[in-house]
Amino acid sequence: MGFSTIGIPGLIIILVIVLILFGPKKLPEIGSAVGKTLFEFKKSAKDIMEDNEPPKKEEKKPDPVQ
């Protein structure tokens, strides 16, 4: 069972609970912090994936004949 089975009603319930716990004044701060965290996570994951790729072989062009 994963997050894909939550559905729209489940998301609405979660949002209402978060609104009750933190209040409307803190929600923009929390949203901003979550957004920045996800951005940094994606950036780090992309950097790691690029580091793990094997280096591309450079094709050598034939020397021009003089």
Keywords:
66 residues, elongated
Q: Say how many strands there are.
A: 0
* Strand composition percent: under 5%
Largest sheet: none
- The total count of helices amounts to 2
Task: Enumerate the spans where pLDDT stays under 50 for 5 or more consecutive residues.
Answer: none
SSE string:
HH
The coarse silhouette is elongated
N-end to C-end Cα span: 69 Å
Structural class determined from secondary elements: mainly alpha
Helical content class: 55-70%
Radius of gyration: 24 Å
Arithmetic mean of pLDDT: 81
Transmembrane segments: 6-23
Protein name: Sec-independent protein translocase protein TatA
GO molecular function: protein transmembrane transporter activity
Subunit structure: Forms a complex with TatC.
